[in-house]
UniProtKB/TrEMBL annotation:
Protein's UniProt name: Heme utilization cystosolic carrier protein HutX
Pfam families: ChuX_HutX
Organism: Bradyrhizobium hipponense
SUPFAM superfamilies referenced in this protein's UniProt entry, alphabetically: Heme iron utilization protein-like
Source taxon at top rank: Bacteria
Chain's gene name: hutX
């Protein structure tokens, strides 16, 4: 990406921090990771992908959150507790027989981005698991309370995990 294009993208994201990341990436012909990295530095911290399992195990203790998978063809949302998981046979396996379950290719995770930004008139906070191609595997959003405010306990855990992961050097 040319430095002028990057500067333009950073200016766009500073003016529109709530823009849909995947839409901006498609419109600008860049990866979603590039769009996340173009957000104002106060809104994003990124840690290495090797922390995938630790982040997922921590999130499994947060309670009800929303997991979103955004593709060109659909946006899937799951609201509920994320199950615990374990690594086996090349996957991070979500250990639950019903509800959200499955097998995640954790070794393709190149980064975990912790994003706090305005979105649709409200503050949002999410962890984006970014793959080796710069795409977003999925996002997990901090839950909201009965007043639609971010849950304070989860936001504290989100920030603690961001501090841990973003501060750790890559192996």
């Amino acid at each position: 990406m040319l430095s002028t294009d990057l500067a333009d993208l950073k200016a766009h994201m500073a003016d529109n921090p709530g823009a849909v990341i995947e839409d901006v990436a498609r419109e600008r012909k860049v990866s979603p990771r590039t769009v996340i990295e173009a957000l104002p530095p106060s809104m994003v911290r990124i840690g290495a992908g090797e922390h995938f399992a630790a982040a997922m195990q921590d999130i499994a203790e947060w309670g009800e959150v929303t997991l979103i998978v955004h593709t060109d063809d659909a946006i899937f949302e799951f609201t509920g507790a994320i199950p615990t998981g374990e690594i086996g046979r090349g996957y991070f396996n979500l250990m639950q027989p019903k509800g959200l379950h499955g097998h995640l290719r954790h070794e393709r995770c190149a980064g975990v981005a912790f994003v706090e930004r305005p979105f649709m008139g409200k503050t949002s906070a999410f962890a984006a698991f970014v793959n080796v191609d710069g795409g977003i595997m999925f996002k997990i959003f901090v839950g909201r309370d009965e007043t639609r405010a971010l849950r304070a306990d989860q936001l504290a855990r989100f920030r603690q995990r961001a501090d841990r992961i973003a501060a750790l050097p890559a192996a």
